[in-house]
Design a protein that fits this description.
The chain is of the alpha/beta class. Helix content is 23%, strand content 32%. The chain folds into three domains: 54 residues, Alpha-Beta Plaits, CATH 3.30.70; 79 residues, Met-10+ protein-like domains (GMP Synthetase, Chain A, domain 3), CATH 3.30.300; 176 residues, Vaccinia Virus protein VP39 (Rossmann fold, 3-Layer(aba) Sandwich), CATH 3.40.50.150.
């Protein structure tokens, strides 16, 4: 668990920055260690701070209503290891993964989560996503309502959790991208509801962002989010990125935010005369270099030169598999 180590006199200033950027880990308390203060942050936000980042050996957790602590008194002991420890809050909705063995207790889990988070209106069971369209599989287990507006980093994202996905775990990457693209022409090949396009336009003011989305439901919310955030630099395009990338435009940057899109790398390279690709992939740790090799191979096949600028972890995807992003300059 990461924390920022800062001198006492700078602690309050840095704490406020961590709060504003959603980097502060609310589960842990700020602690004093001699002349320094440790401010707990979530993984993935280290790059936002110039102070020393430490691994906390003895974190101090805030006292709060704990889902496991409540449910272990109401669910048989032989199922305690299956009680959810984590869940997602998106706007005023909660998404939680529940093991099949807890099928008979799903309503109890949902109602308990609403007790812990009274500002939320519904709890949905998260059963994953399907295919390239990333359609969510969910089930209502408590409360009512599926539409919400999620506020993040000065941006608004309207969505329906039964129709489109949203990953709070990608926040650090969305914030990183929000600092890029000033004055550039950008193509967002898998725009969704505007995950990267909206923050980039709100914070960096690119010249133009061509936001391509194949899922009609996601595209509908992309249009709504463009209006909600009052951005006029996005050109929304409904279609398949393999075929609808605009021609005869000078493109500086391509975002490939879908974690299973390696077959689209050649199309991204062809869209650039010279510029940067941000390529995402979920990759087993045993073949961790696979995303970099895929970009190098595709560039070579297109007769282009490539320089790898950055290779970073976005988050853990599943046991032994991580979500990574590669920044590559195509020449």
């Amino acid at each position: 668990m990461k924390a920022i180590r800062v001198p006492k006199e700078k602690a309050e200033e840095v704490r406020k920055v961590a709060e504003r950027s959603s980097a502060k880990d609310k589960r842990r308390l700020v602690v004093c260690r001699g002349d320094y203060v440790e401010i707990p942050i979530y993984d993935g936000f280290e790059h936002l701070f110039s102070y020393e980042i430490v691994e906390q050996e003895n974190p101090v957790f805030a006292k709060s209503k704990d889902l496991f602590g409540i449910l272990k008194k109401r669910i048989p002991e032989n199922l305690h290891n299956l009680i959810p420890r984590r869940y997602k809050i998106i706007g005023d909705l909660i998404l939680v993964k529940i093991a099949e063995e807890l099928e008979n207790y799903k309503s109890l889990i949902g109602e308990t989560l609403l007790e812990i988070h009274p500002h939320c209106k519904a709890v949905w069971r998260d059963m994953g996503k399907k295919g390239m369209l990333r359609r969510p599989e969910v089930e209502l287990i408590a409360g009512e309502g599926s539409e919400t507006v999620h506020r993040e980093n000065g941006c608004l994202f309207k969505l329906d959790v039964t129709k489109v996905m949203f990953s709070p775990g990608n926040l650090a990457e969305r914030m990183r991208m929000a600092k890029l693209g000033k004055g550039e022409v950008v193509i967002d090949m898998f725009a969704g509801i505007g995950y990267f396009s909206i923050p980039m336009c709100v914070h960096s003011r690119p010249e133009k962002v061509y936001s391509i989305e194949i899922n009609p439901d996601s595209y509908k919310f992309l249009l709504e989010n463009i209006k909600l955030n009052h951005v006029d630099r996005i050109v929304p395009i409904l279609g398949d990125s393999m075929f609808v990338i605009p021609e005869n435009i000078e493109v500086d940057r391509v975002i490939m935010g879908h974690i299973r899109c390696h077959e689209f790398i050649p199309a991204a390279i062809r869209a650039l005369r010279e510029g940067i690709i941000h390529y995402h992939e979920s990759v087993p740790e045993a073949v961790i270099n696979r995303p970099v090799e895929r970009i190098k191979r595709a560039a070579r096949d297109e007769g282009r030169e490539v320089k790898i600028l950055n290779f970073r972890k976005v988050k853990n995807y599943s046991p032994g598999v991580i979500h990574v992003v590669v920044d590559a300059r195509i020449c």
